Amino acid sequence: MAGYCLAMTLSRGDVAERLGLGEEYAAWLAHLDALGPVPDVVALSLDQTEAELRRLGFAADDARDVIDTRGAIHADPSLRWLFDRAVHGMRLEVGLLDGSRRTPTLPAVLGAPGRLFWVHVYLAALPAIREWHAARGVTETISEDTLSDFGRHVALYRRRTGLPGLDTQWWLSLHFRGALFALGRLQFNPFSLCTGPAGPLFWYPEAPNPALRCGQPALGVHIPESGPLTPSAVDAALGQAYHFFRETFPAQASNVAVCTSWLLDEQLADYLAADSNIVRFQRRFTLLPGSKEADASPFHFVFGTSPAAAPTLQPRTTLERALLGHLADGKHWALRTGWLQLGP
């Protein structure tokens, strides 16, 4: 309680100084400060936190570290100042599909409480997004599948770094705003072409057909790390997406689905079998011209590291051998954008 009371008296300048937040945090702090009076943010109790971590599929070691840092987040007045305003801001933005939340990673010097700061914020915001889902007819299964990406990203952070934490809070803000849904094997976010934080990284003034012009509605397709990308699973996910948005969010429904990913790089077909899951996934999409060199992307998702580590990696699969061999030959991987027609 003492930490909370002191937090109420701090200015954003005080918080910046106490936590060592430099100029790169100034816009975020100003945004938090401008939210106006912050209602008393009641964090989840210990029992509630433990129950939510189990429900979200957090690994035991991740759950333990989240529990261990609860006290540090709530007792430090400066962290509490950030926490209350970040949670308040997230609650205000539930249901807003456009725009991108400011969710900067805190300085490494803050240790585990800093690395897990956004985990605690999202845990406190869970009731708001769950209520929003329920009020709009999102089934409990879809809601749970969507939010379980939270625990998976925390686990991936540990796999990459060996430490507890989260650095993809910008991505999870889509889940907690109601702007993304897990539908079977894939994830989908409704947006307008040429806009949105999770849309294609490049687009074209002269689209190949009217449905692909800037401003037209579309569903972004995303591929979480959650098992094989089998044709039957992809078929089911695309079919579910077609019906889900028409039935639950008709204003966001679209027959056009777009995907920007290294998995659409046609160079992969030079190394993988024609009937492999990845190549069959690629063939569903019509590629659009243009690409963005992105060696880091496949290395991040497949190896959990950067291309700089390539000489030390031992490939175990055809895909891993392809990723490493391609770079060893002086070539590069790219992000490509493709589109497909949903429904009849």
Secondary-structure blueprint:
Elements: H1 2-7, H2 12-19, H3 26-33, H4 46-55, H5 60-75, H6 77-93, H7 111-115, H8 117-135, H9 140-147, H10 149-161, H11 169-177, E1 181-183, E2 186-192, E3 217-222, H12 231-248, E4 256-261, H13 277-282, E5 286-287, E6 292-293, H14 296-303, H15 318-328, E7 334-341
Parallel strand pairs: 3-4
Antiparallel strand pairs: 1-2, 2-3, 4-7, 5-7, 6-7
Helix pairs in contact: 2-6, 5-6, 6-8, 8-11
Task: Describe this structure as you would to a colleague.
The protein is of the alpha+beta class and 344 residues long. 47% of the residues lie in helices and 10% in strands. Strands 1, 2, 3, 4, 5, 6 and 7 form a seven-stranded mixed sheet that branches. The longest helix has 19 residues, at 117-135.
Shape: globular
Number of strands: 7
Tally of alpha and pi helices: 15
Whole-number average pLDDT? 91
Beta-strand percent range: 5-15%
Tell me the structural class: alpha+beta
SSE string, helix = H, strand = E?
Answer: HHHHHHHHHHHEEEHEHEEHHE
State the low-pLDDT regions, or none.
none
Query: Helix amount, in percent?
Result: 40-55%
Brief rundown of the structure:
This protein has 344 residues and is α+β, with helices and mostly antiparallel strands. It contains 15 helices and 7 strands.
